[in-house]
Design brief:
Elements: E1 6-10, H1 27-48, E2 54-58, H2 61-69, E3 73-76, H3 83-97, E4 102-104, H4 114-124, E5 129-134, E6 140-146, H5 159-169, E7 173-176, H6 189-202, H7 208-216
Length: about 230
């Protein structure tokens, strides 16, 4: 049995990603944004958690090649039929491969923070157990399950509550962990407004990565980039 949780990152085809931004960003912008978020997420876990195996679940051969290039294992899906089926496929694979737990994290968190992920991993403890990190909209932005298939996956609107209720029905130890940076993903026009406000609030201290994300979110008919840092190298 492998004691360290497997880190699972489901990734949708970039051309199909970010559909809820369809009225705000062009298809090219959405695809570029999804790719950047994916590359950055894979790089973050490779750099900060190299002792944890990483598994990308995808139906896209292109994304599979990218994931392998960035040091992750790949579980290729026969078709892209949603986050819950992807999570279940990963859990079945992880259980068979001997992992004691899995940590599922989407590829679109705006600011991944090493300290937050460390806290999340330490919260899990011994299984059977579930740790839920809610998204700002009530979804689930991280889910630690021990064993990997400890509960049925219920991703979607208000999934944090759905996962907690599923854990309670099964009599599992369940903790809800509120982590400020892990709450924020890029999924809706409101998220773009939040990103804009975050950048303006931080001013000159804005990390370069946030600036890069904002540039990818900018369209001629959408929000205007914050000019105070447009010329910053």
């Amino acid at each position: 049995m492998t004691p360290k949780p497997l880190i699972v990152i489901p990734v949708k085809d970039f051309r199909q990603a970010k559909s809820r931004l369809g009225n705000t960003l062009s298809p090219d912008h959405r695809s570029a944004l999804a790719r950047r978020l994916c590359e950055r997420t894979l790089g973050f876990f490779a750099n900060h958690f190299p002792d944890h195996d990483r598994l990308v679940v995808t139906a896209s051969p292109k994304i599979a090649r990218l994931a392998k290039k960035l040091g992750a294992m790949v579980l290729e899906e026969p078709q892209a039929d949603g986050l819950s089926p992807a999570a279940q496929r990963a859990a079945d694979w992880a259980r068979q491969a001997g992992y004691s737990a899995q940590l599922l994290v989407p590829a679109d968190i705006v600011e991944l923070d090493e300290a937050e992920i460390c806290r999340l991993l330490k919260t899990g403890g011994e299984g059977p157990a579930v740790v839920i990190c809610p998204a700002s909209d009530g979804g689930t932005n991280a889910l630690l399950t021990s064993p990997p298939d400890a509960l049925p996956f219920r991703f979607g609107p208000q999934s944090a509550v759905a996962h907690r209720q599923a854990a309670q029905r099964l009599g599992l130890s369940c903790q809800v962990l509120e982590l400020s940076r892990l709450r924020f993903d890029l999924d809706t026009p409101a998220d773009l407004s939040t990103l804009d406000a975050l950048i303006q609030q931080r001013g000159a201290e804005t990390p370069q990565e946030l600036k890069k994300l904002w540039n990818l979110c900018t369209t001629p008919h959408g929000m205007t980039p914050w000019t105070a840092w447009l010329t910053t190298p």
